[in-house]
Amino acid sequence: MSGDAPNLKRPLFSTRDRPWLNALLFLCTLGTTLFAGYAAATPTPGSTLWGQTIGFGATVMAILTAHEMGHYVLARIHGVDSSLPYFIPLPPPIGLFGTMGAVIRIRDRIPHRNALVDIGAAGPLAGLAVAVPLLFLGTHWSHVAPAPTLHDNFPGATSLWALLPELYWLLREWLFNIPAPVIEGTQVITIFGDSLLTQAATRLVHGPLQPGYELYVHPVFLAAWFGLLMTMLNLVPIGQLDGGHLTYALFGEKAVFIGKCMAWLMALFAVFFSASWLVWLFVTAKLIGFRHPDVVFPQSPVSLGRKLICAISFLFLLLCLLPSPVTQAVL
């Protein structure tokens, strides 16, 4: 069997699509991301409130659109029927970035493993092609200033290890009316975690930061950071996530074992770094699942070029990895 099965040559747009719904969700998500950008904006010399607001919203929407259209276009090229992207608005304060991302629906079985790699990797790589330049642009617009003195320990303040004692005191107060101890003179601030990629951008643009200094980020940087977070979560090799497509193409049914190992790793991240990993663990393990539907021609080999694409994709998973995406520290 050839590595590439016959292309069904579907038209670019399907009669099963409802473009008006996709357009409506896009406009709603654009509105909520602009709202989130307005909340995140802090005008500085040479940067206006509306400029930062539009920069944030445009960055988030550009990354999400590139990601989903990467999947969509490659699916059509391989003759796989798929929906147009559905954007998911989530206005602040519920959604800090104004959205939960975007999805497309694959309506057909994927013909062969090469197509599975193409469709699975096209989204993250297209999104990164937009996110990385905007990350460097946002880093350039950010500024370095003296940092407050933080007392941030390991395990992280938002890890299960740290939160369980807090839950214990809350239950005591609720059940037995025993007040929890109060720590005077402290202030809790929110910190967005650094990946290897954001650290590299900071170092290349601003040089090594001196002790006692940190990067105060521009909203475009924050929006690109969110795009990298979405890319990281999608590249986790579980089930029908983008990373799951790639591991199934490479390893077949062994991908289930790899996915379960990743689930245990996410559980460890939740215990020691950030309890927020529990949300993605639940979504992947319970809602998405570990299994992956077979392709039409499972005997077709994965080409060397597609293996290289998989390696590049998983390299970016490591570069975008955020053990503590959002945490808290005490001043």
Descriptive account of the structure:
- This protein has 331 residues and is mainly α.
- It has one domain (19-150, 188-330).
- The protein is built from ten helices and six strands, in the order H-H-E-E-H-E-H-E-H-E-H-H-H-H-H-E.
- The protein has helices at 19-40, 49-77, 113-141, 160-176, 196-206, 219-235, 242-251, 255-272, 277-288, 304-320; strands at residues 86-89, 99-103, 143-146, 188-192, 213-216, 326-330.
- The radius of gyration is 22 Å and the shape is globular.
- Mean pLDDT is 86; it is low at 5-9.
Q: What tags apply to this protein structure?
A:
two-stranded antiparallel ribbon; 331 residues; mainly alpha; 10 helices
Low-confidence stretches: 5-9
Instruction: Report the sheet-strand fraction.
Output: 5-15%
Determine the fraction of residues in helical runs and give it as a percent range: 40-55%
Number of helices: 10
User: What is the count of β-strands?
Assistant: 6
Largest sheet: 2 strands, antiparallel
Integer count of domains: 1
The rounded Rg comes to 22 Å
Q: Cα distance, first to last residue?
A: 63 Å
Helix and strand sequence: HHEEHEHEHEHHHHHE
What best-fitting shape do the alpha-carbon axes yield?
Answer: globular
Global mean pLDDT? 86
* Content-based structural category: mainly alpha
The strand order across the widest sheet is: 1-2
Give me the secondary-structure topology.
Blueprint: H1 19-40, H2 49-77, E1 86-89, E2 99-103, H3 113-141, E3 143-146, H4 160-176, E4 188-192, H5 196-206, E5 213-216, H6 219-235, H7 242-251, H8 255-272, H9 277-288, H10 304-320, E6 326-330
Helix pairs in contact: 1-2, 2-3, 2-6, 3-5, 3-6, 3-7, 3-10, 6-10, 7-8, 7-10, 8-9
